[in-house]
Amino acid sequence: MSRNAHPAGPRHGDVLPDPHPSGAPADLNALDPAIWPVSARRIDGVLNLGGASVTALVDEHGTPALFLDENDVRGRARAYTAGFPGVDVYYAGKAFLCTAVARWIAEEGLGLDVCTGGELAVALAAGFPAERIAVHGNNKSVAELRRAVDARVGHVIVDSFDEISRLADVASEVGVRQRVLVRVTVGVEAHTHEFIATAHEDQKFGFSLRDGSAARAVEAVLGAPSLELAGLHSHIGSQIFETSGFEVAAHRVVGLAASIRDVHGLQVDELNLGGGLGIAYVPGDDPESPKQTLERLSGIVEVECAAVGLRVPRLSVEPGRAIIGPSGVTIYEVGTVKDVTLDGGHVRRYVSVDGGMSDNIRTALYDAEYTCVVANRGSAAPPMLSRVVGKHCESGDVVVRDTWLPSDVRPGDLLAVAATGAYCRSMASNYNHVPRPPVVAVGDGRSNVIVRRETEDDLLRLDTGIDR
Questions:
Q1: Domains in the chain, start-ordered, CATH in brackets?
Q2: For 282, which DSSP code?
């Protein structure tokens, strides 16, 4: 998923080890359409998002701030539903969720997968249709299960034998027959970071095919009168560009479905292959289009079902970050610029901004890469390899590990980091007691705060030692 870090300095290939990223782009002001929202463009050198200049947006909303292009989100959602009436598409709430985004997703006809009681609460507060909600999680509490059953969610994805027992009891008490999917660990390791690959054997999710626990979980569900086996679920990881892993996963899950037919005389109605589909963060990232992805996944399932004489079940997918990730751009203000001379006379430039790992932990956590540009002006200055860092008291507080920026970048400039719509604000923290940034929807020249900026009063409100 990520390339190796490298020394940053004022020169090009003569100071870069091998392997190293490509040289400086021909135009530091250019915006790669594969990475930026569809509305992103420069007007008189200034980055515009959703029809508004970032300088005007910052004047109104401050920095740091995450700007979401609403039309871009909706367009990507529609791209996954257009032309595929036999496929259910679920938006991953964990990527980013608030009531406004939940309503956008609902209006575009998608389902929603949630993995905690908090995410479910947001979905229900937004009025999201409960029958289109799927509830994930490897350790759902009794309270969370009860809330899901009370709400009449469409599916609960069961993840352990303890949970099957708990859910059966809750559904019996409520007096409903809850539809469930059994999450299957298929033994496929996606080509992604270790911490976001979720289908190899040594991890916490699902029931293993190899040791027979998946088959036993199916039997447990079928043996519970208050549960209904709707189908099977598999998820092999995140930030995936290739479909080869899905082929192996589908083969193994369809094999289990055929076994259920042969042993129990039951045809499963649904097969959820998860998703974790990748997006472009830096030049060279080349994800498939939604049409390509859905055509290939549908084709894979049809071939595997035909091989075992199984009727093709309804296919479900979870595109994950692919719907909202490219639609988000975080804007920071530069506070300091520092050149540090290293051994050998090389210089590393540190560009410090007013956010950091509290609003984007992915670089520190996954060694993630991002594309970054100066947003408030164009520049013809020579490129310089730079490291964009945050304001936190932590040496690992890095936003963009190595990026080409104009050598005239200075305090007061605005930096825009692309593709931050997913897993940035949703994983944000208050490390060093830094308030979390707002999320602002933009579109058609207008902006609207959909999650307000936290304040120091918000932080202090939880501190019980303060006299009020």
A1: 13-68+326-461 (2.40.37.10), 136-319 (3.20.20.10)
A2: S
**Contact (Cβ atoms closer than 8 angstroms) between residue 333 and residue 354:** yes
Query: CA 279, 97, 436 angle in degrees (round to 5)?
Result: 95
CA 236, CA 254: separation in Å to the nearest integer?
Answer: 15
Distance, in Å, from the CA atom of 231 to the CA atom of 180, rounded to the nearest integer, reads: 7
pLDDT at 274 over 60: yes
Catalytic residue from among 98, 115, 305, 393: 393
Alpha carbon 65 to chain centroid distance? 18
What is the Cα–Cα distance from 362 to 327, expressed in whole angstroms?
17
Cα(293)–Cα(299) distance, integer angstroms = 10
Token digits of residue 409: 């970048």
Residue 3's pLDDT band (cuts 50, 70, 90): very low
- Beta bridge partners, 329, equal 67, 418
Please give the model's pTM, rounded to 2 decimal places: 0.90
Query: Cis ω on the peptide bond leading into residue 7 (within 30° of 0)?
Result: no
Strand segments (E) across 196-277 = 207-208, 227-233, 270-275
- Say if residues 322 and 312 touch (Cβ distance below 8 Å): no
Phi/psi for 70 (5° steps) reads -60, -45
Query: Catalytic residue at 115?
Result: no
Mean pLDDT of all residues in 38-44: 97
Percent helix, strand, coil in the chain (nearest 5)? 30, 25, 45
Encode pLDDT of 91-134 as tens digits: 999 999 999 999 999 999 999 999 999 999 999 999 999 999 99
Give the residue carrying structure tokens 């956590």.
365
Quote the pLDDT of residue 198: 42
Looking at the chain, how many residues does it have?
Answer: 468
- Find the mean pLDDT for residues 33-37: 97
In whole angstroms, give the CA distance from residue 326 to residue 95.
12
For residue 422 the two structure tokens come to: 């997913």
More confident residue, 422 or 7: 422
The answer to whether the bond into 129 is cis (omega within 30° of 0) is no
Q: pLDDT band at 189, cuts 50/70/90?
A: low
